[in-house]
Amino acid sequence: xxxxxxxxxxxxxxxxxxxxxxxxxxxxxxxxxxxxxxxxxxxxxxxxxxxxxxxxxxxxxxxxxxxxxxxxxxxxxxxxxxxxxxxxxxxxxxxxxxxxxxxxxxxxxxxxxxxxxxxxxxxxxxxxxx
Length: 130
Prior knowledge:
Helix content is 39%, strand content 15%. By secondary structure, the chain is α+β, with helices and mostly antiparallel strands. A three-stranded mixed β-sheet has the order 1-2-3, with helices on both faces. Strand 2 (112-118) and strand 3 form a beta hairpin.
């Protein structure tokens, strides 16, 4: 969700403005992006998917229980029905998201590659592909 990280990641992947349909969400989670991915494939012709998560991600810092507790405390609402999808292992989260898309009957059989963008160094590291 951070704009500067997006710009650095696009540069690291060699993308120019207009080269890709960029779908962003908290943690870069594939399940949150599924609706947009299907639209991009079916209506815009997207034939490759790249998943990028980054180091120093806020999604590594909490659990569903923590965020649900904050919502109960501050908003007096129950959010137990929402999976906020935090993760404890950055590389595994990318691999999990590749799997989610490969297993979805709504996603075309296209190349899917997963990367971790290292905020500290500006490097992008491939961690998996289908």
